[in-house]
Amino acid sequence: MVKIRDIELPDFPLLLAPMEDVSDPPFRRLCKREGADLMYTEFISVEGLIRDAWKSKKKLDVFDYEKPIGIQIFGADIEHMEGVVPIIEEANPDLIDINFGCPVQKVVCKMAGAGILRDIPLMVKLTSHVVKASKKPVTVKTRLGWDEDSINIVEVAERLQDVGIEALTIHGRTRKQMYKGEANWEHIAQVKENPRMKIPVFGNGDIDSPEKAVLYRQKYGVDGIMIGRASIGYPWIFREIKHFIQTGTLMSPPSTAERVDAARQHLLHSMEWKGEKLGILEMRRHYTNYFRGFENIKNYRMQLVLQDDPKLILSILDEIEEVYGTSAALAD
Prior knowledge:
The chain has 332 residues and is an alpha/beta fold. It has helices spanning 25-33, 46-50, 54-58, 78-83, 85-90, 105-108, 120-133, 153-162, 185-193, 210-220, 237-247, 256-274, 276-283, 287-290, 298-306, 310-324, and strands spanning 2-4, 7-9, 14-16, 38-40, 44-45, 69-74, 95-100, 138-143, 168-171, 201-204, 224-227. The protein has 2 domains: 2-246, Aldolase class I (TIM Barrel, Alpha-Beta Barrel); 256-324, Orthogonal Bundle (Non-ribosomal Peptide Synthetase Peptidyl Carrier Protein, Chain A). It is built from 16 helices and 11 strands.
């Protein structure tokens, strides 16, 4: 068992990464159903919460069936980071996670996300203030360093633990790498092997198959793994990894019916949570992922992204299930 204060997770938990415009409640619902052990909201701007911005406040929505769940925040102003803690706690998550890893320029230029990797003392000070203000456990997600010449994650991990964080997730790339190249888990292993570290250490980066998940567990000794891009349009990754860990065999991939059902449920919950118009609009980015590999799917995909009548969209999904059936031929 892995524990984050009083939060009990199974041995080698699987975490759903916080992903902007992806890990919202409709998507999290699917991932929870398929075996995600701990999930996070999309990352939320502290400045947005301070300004009472609708979009930021909406991201605070968490539900009992999702638990345990963490609300992830980003920002660089100590007073504001500390000040939003009561707002977050009112939403009743199980923990608060601080994002020190987002590499996109619009976040980095404000010294937030991975931008703070250029100022480790500020990173530590900011974390300390959030920990002291919070009744909930505080965790951190970060990267190896700003660039190859400033990889200092072993020291950073110690300092963050010393000010009170209760778990750490490390993405095995630097900010300069963005999402390019291969994630370097050797540095993550060094943090886990450090005898000073007492908190759970989770690894993140490039886990896209059950085989790789088991290999990295054995090779790098992390307490669990966080899965991001591999889950987009494929929430079954969680159940497949768990099955492989338990049995050593691979599950059959999801059937056409399961894929259509996931897209259907995702759409319905998106409309329920966001409203019909926005739910339909923001769902369009997901259809390609749910039906990736289906031969000659382009025509259906175009219909799905152009249609704004929910009844017609659902009928198109029904037709996909009927046409492709249980033996849908997938492209190589």
